[in-house]
Design goal:
There is one protein chain. It is built from 9 helices and 6 strands; from the N terminus they run H-H-H-E-H-E-H-H-E-E-H-E-E-H-H. The protein has a 4-stranded mixed sheet with strand order 1-2-4-3. A two-stranded antiparallel sheet has the order 5-6. Helices cover about 40% and strands about 15% of the residues. It has a single domain (about 25-35, about 55-220), classed as Beta Polymerase, domain 2.
């Protein structure tokens, strides 16, 4: 009879996680992005989300950021958010990459402070990348929704709530990673787990991974 695999991650996923944990956060992000690095010329405009009629458009005139300035979309997105002084933390699959897994994702999920001034800063920053799709949204629209999808290149999901987690709760416990010289505030493992207590199968799988990462870090700290 074969040896019983520990509860949670299967043998293959556990081996993959152990391999990922040996990499730096930046290396994990790079590895996850390698198959999907794109240039703006390849962007399909039909994927951009059409916006309602504008009311208060975010400020314009700031220099766009070239798509090839960074090797990773995560660094590109966070660089413009940092420059804009936005209050945010990275959540979702990007946060999992920083903590310990190279799982692929097309989007960058950010949990933001739910205020009009901050939403304006977020949109102003994101309008500098891709085709500037973010400039077609308003701060009022962003704060009125749980999720606003900026379907640009790169694609960003702006969250005012990640399941039951808010920026105000997550920000004090956030951990800062550095990718390509860009500082990235990232939700802590406990908050990421809390943000994924949904009924979605992918979220349940992500919780298993996060708990395994947490156990591994606890053992190393002893």
């Amino acid at each position: 009879m074969p040896r019983t695999v520990r509860k949670g991650l299967g043998r293959y996923r556990l081996a993959q996680l152990r391999s990922d944990l040996k990499l730096t956060p930046e290396a994990r992000v790079l590895e996850a992005e390698e198959p999907t690095l794109e240039h703006l010329a390849a962007f399909d405009l039909t994927t951009a989300r059409s916006a309602p009629k504008r009311r208060t458009r975010v400020s314009e005139g700031r220099q766009p950021v070239p798509a090839d300035q960074f090797a990773t979309k995560l660094a590109l997105v966070c660089s413009v958010l940092n420059d804009a002084g936005a209050h945010y933390v990275v959540v979702g699959a990007r946060a999992l990459q920083l903590w310990g897994t190279s799982r692929f994702t097309k989007d960058t999920d950010i949990l933001i402070e739910k205020t009009l001034p901050n939403a304006e800063r977020v949109l102003a920053g994101l309008s500098r990348i891709g085709f500037g799709v973010a400039a077609d949204f308003t701060a009022e629209e962003v704060v009125s929704r749980h999720v606003t999808i900026i379907g640009d290149t790169p694609s960003v999901d702006i969250l005012t709530r990640a399941w039951n987690l808010t920026w105000r709760e997550a920000a004090p416990r956030a951990v800062t990673f550095t990718v390509e010289g860009v500082t990235i505030p990232t939700a802590c493992i406990e908050d990421l787990i809390a943000s994924k207590r949904t009924s979605r199968l992918q979220d349940l799988a992500d919780i298993e991974v996060l708990e395994a990462i947490q156990k591994s870090r606890t053992r190393k700290s002893r």
